[in-house]
C-alpha cells in the first residue's frame, strides 16, 4: 500500500475517521491562517525594505505566492502529523482529526498549492525566488515535520529556519538574490523561535508527552528548558538591534528594539525563576504572548521607517 493510499483514513482508539465532507472553512483551517498571517507580514516587511522596485501587481503576486506556499506547508504538516494532532488537546479539533477532511485530501490540497505557488512565482516574478520558496516548503515539510519534529528536542531550533525564510524570499522577489540585510531579518526570527515555542511547550508539556513528540521539556526536563529560554533570550537582545547596526534602520529603531529585548529578557528571567505551580505556568504564558507582540512590533517599526523614508 502506498503512502498516499494509506492516508485515506486513520484511527483514533481503533475508530476510523472518514473525511470528504470538508467545508471551505475546513480547508482554510488546513492553511494555518494564524501562522500564515505572520508569514505574510514578515514577508511584506522584507519586500518593503529590499532595494529596487517591483511593480505593484507583481508585488501582490509575490506576497500571495509566499502566503499560499506557507499555507501549503501547513496543510502538508497536518497531513503528516494527523496522528499526533489527534491526541493533543490544542490540535484535536483540526479538520483531519475531527474527521472532516481525509489525509489524502489534505495531501492533494497541500501539494497542489505548493506546486502552484512555486510555478506562479517563477513565471511571474523570478525563478530564484521561486526556488527559494520551494526550498522553504521542502524544509518545513520534510526536514522539520517528517524528520526533526519526531526525532530530536532540537526540532524547533533547526526547524525554526523554515519560519524565518519568508522575509528573505520576499527580498529575493525584488532583487533576485539575497543580502546581509535579508539575512539579519532571518536571524531575528530564527533566534526568536526557540524561546517562543519552548514557552508554549512548558505549559503544553503534557500534550507533547502524550503525543510522543520529543520537545525539550519532555526529553531534557523543564529546568533545562528554562535555562535554554534564558540563553536564547539573552542572544536575541543584541540580534534584535542588528538592523540599526547594519545601517538599514535608524537609531530610534535600535533603542526601541533594545527596550523590547530587555522586556523579553525580563519575562524570560521570570520563567527561569518560577519553576513550580500556577506561577510557573503564568510566567510561561506571559512570555509566549509577549513574544508574538515582540516580533510584530520589531517588524512593524521597520515597516513604518521604510514607508516614511520612501514617502
Automatic annotation (TrEMBL):
It is found in: Cell membrane. It comes from the Bacteria. Keywords: Cell membrane, Heme biosynthesis, Membrane, Transferase, Transmembrane, Transmembrane helix. Converts heme B (protoheme IX) to heme O by substitution of the vinyl group on carbon 2 of heme B porphyrin ring with a hydroxyethyl farnesyl side group. It comes from Roseibium aestuarii. The chain crosses the membrane at residues 35-51, 57-80, 101-121, 127-148, 155-171, 183-203, 229-246, 252-272, 284-304. Carbon 2 of the heme B porphyrin ring is defined according to the Fischer nomenclature. This is Protoheme IX farnesyltransferase. PROSITE patterns: UBIA (PS00943). It catalyses: heme b + (2E,6E)-farnesyl diphosphate + H2O = Fe(II)-heme o + diphosphate. NCBIfam families: cyoE_ctaB, PRK04375.1-2. InterPro entries: Protohaem_IX_farnesylTrfase (IPR006369), UbiA_prenyltransferase (IPR000537), UbiA_prenylTrfase_CS (IPR030470), UbiA_sf (IPR044878). Pathway: Porphyrin-containing compound metabolism; heme O biosynthesis; heme O from protoheme: step 1/1.
